Amino acid sequence: MKLIDFVAITSLVLSTASFPLEQQPLSNGLPSLGEMWGEDWPFDGIPTFAHLNHSKCLLSRDSIYDIGIVGVPFDTATTYRSGARFGPRAIRGASQRQNSLRGFNTRAGINPYKNWATFIDCGDIPISPMDNSIALKQMTLAFEELLINRKSTDGKHPPKLIALGGDHSITLPHLRSLKQIYGKIAVIHFDAHLDTWSPKGYPSYWSSNQSDFTHGSMLWMARNEELISDDSNVHIGIRTRISGEDWKDFEDDSRQGWKRYSADDIWLDGRASLDIIINEVHERIGDMPTFITVDVDCMDPGFTPGTGTIEPGGMLPREVIYLLRKFDLNLVGGDVVEVAPSFDHAEVTSTNAAQIAYELITSMVKKGKIDI
């Protein structure tokens, strides 16, 4: 190589060294590597949620994010069909048509991926599928690590998480960490089932303290641990069978601070019912820190066949999305749970779940940073 060529190349390298590698021009006048090869189609690339940057956040406290996506692949607290441990993978796969380039949310007037918030797909929490006592401990410590031992970009506000389930029991460890930050949390619970059942209502000779922890009892546990509000919690989409004509299940649910909206409450009067629910929920919750948890079985099995405990007669996805788009609350966390892809068809369930996660993300960004 001629000396003059070596000097020219060295000069070019030094002049571009301050730029990230993918932004550095190949040579004068030529596009950068990022411009040439930085575009992902929905069907290529490693499937992080919505093509977001990825980091195993549990391995580094240097991870800084305002909103993190975390998978919680756990399903050994289910009482019927298992398989939700594969839910995070399926939801991420179904989210591939989302990206920052075409992420504008028309109802909110923002692109949540190109606004104030820094996003990271934090990967999955490693969870034992063999010992639920260990699994619950792992999830509890992991949420503490990701919420309490991490900083947002301004260093003042705690980051927030959208959790991809996993069965519905994953809500409990998430609420445990949020309680340490915000105090008691108001919960909006989209589900076909109450999930406030006391384990004592289902007595068995074969029982233990650990067997109390299921995807149908985690809200009862959250109430007993004083994690959630006394009287500001809401169920939406309920259509479960109950124990008897004495309505004891509903009475116990009301004592735990819940107001119920059934699936019938929603479809009988259409949009009028939805708007009534929105107004009543806002009045009930006010400015409280709020957690929204969406079990995909709140929707009809025709739209979410890939779930563990299907119940006929559920909500339409558009009804769930409409409610999520209209809630204007201090959303401090959320999850989408009970996606079991082995029972899904053509990614119908996981696509609905990915859209719900997008709506929750948009609401977090739209509301802005919440002071403690």
TrEMBL record:
Annotated Mn(2+) binding sites: H168, D191, H193, D195, D295, D297
Q: Which cofactors, by name?
A: Mn(2+)
Which Gene Ontology molecular-function terms are recorded? agmatinase activity; metal ion binding
**Any binding details for the cofactor?**
Binds 2 manganese ions per subunit.
Signal peptide positions on this chain: 1-18
Q: Name one GO biological process term.
A: putrescine biosynthetic process from arginine, via agmatine
Q: Can you tell me which residues the record assigns to a coiled coil? A: none
Q: Which UniProt keywords apply?
A: Hydrolase, Manganese, Metal-binding, Signal
Q: Which family does it belong to?
A: Belongs to the arginase family. Agmatinase subfamily.
Record-given protein name: Agmatinase
